[in-house]
Structures are given as C-alpha cells and as structure tokens.
C-alpha cells in the first residue's frame, strides 16, 4: 500500500476541490446554492475515493473505487458545464476547472487501464 498523498491523481483531485471551493465562494448563493453543494461533494468524492481505493488490497477493489472517483469527476464536469451554460461564473475560472477535470479523468482512466493489464 502506497501513501495516497504521493499519487499525482490524488494531488490533482485536491487541486480541483480547491478550485471548486474558490469558484463558489465568489458566486451569488441565490443562483447556485444547490449546485454548490453538489459540486463540492463531487469534488471531494474524487480525492476521497482515490485515497480509499489505494487502501484496498485487490486490484478489483482498487478499480471499483477509481470507477467511483471517475464517476464523480464526470458529475463535477456536468455541474461545471451548467455554470458555463448559465454564465453564472467567470469564464476563465470555469475553463480552468474544466481543463483540470479533463486531466483528472484521463489520469483515472489510465490508472484503471493499468489495473486491468
């Protein structure tokens, strides 16, 4: 079992969580209250599932937690795209967050592929 804090995909997930919290701190709560709760939970779920999956002994269990983390990343992407479509958030922050989410999704998918090899 490795130290999950050294995993680049966990570190990126923590960066994403910070980006989400920073983004929503600046938005009017009347428009985004429910979306904020869903987005912060999804962002935290990515890092949490990577950490928990890393503690599992079997490759099958690790893979399952990475699947959950990936699902949370897609959930967060959808919520961020909603902000973008509604023009509720600064364009550059949304674009930066979407780019980070895309990178995270690729890292998770690559790791899952390695688990199956």
Outline the fold blueprint.
Blueprint: H1 8-25, H2 29-54, H3 59-86, H4 91-116
Helix pairs in contact: 1-2, 1-4, 2-3, 3-4
End-to-end C-alpha gap: 19 Å
Report the CATH topology name: de novo design (two linked rop proteins)
Low-confidence stretches: none
Could you tell me the number of beta strands?
Answer: 0
CATH class: Mainly Alpha
Helix count equals: 4
H-E string: HHHH
CATH superfamily: 23S rRNA-intervening sequence
Question: Oligomeric state of the chains?
Answer: single chain
Structural classification: mainly alpha
Question: Please, how many domains?
Answer: 1
The largest sheet is:
none
The proportion of residues forming helix, as a percent range, comes to over 70%
| Content of β-strand | under 5%
Q: What is the radius of gyration computed over CA atoms, rounded to a whole number of angstroms?
A: 15 Å
- For the residues shown, what is the average pLDDT? 94
Shape: elongated
* Second-tier CATH architecture: Up-down Bundle
What does this 3D model show about the protein?
The protein starts with 7 loop residues before the first helix and ends with a helix. 84% of the residues lie in helices and 0% in strands. The radius of gyration is 15 Å and the shape is elongated. By secondary structure, it is an all-alpha fold. It has a single domain (4-116), classed as Up-down Bundle (de novo design (two linked rop proteins)). The model has no long low-confidence stretch (mean pLDDT 94). The protein has helices at 8-25, 29-54, 59-86, 91-116. Helix 1 packs antiparallel against helix 2 (29-54), helix 1 packs antiparallel against helix 4 (91-116) and helix 3 runs antiparallel to helix 4.
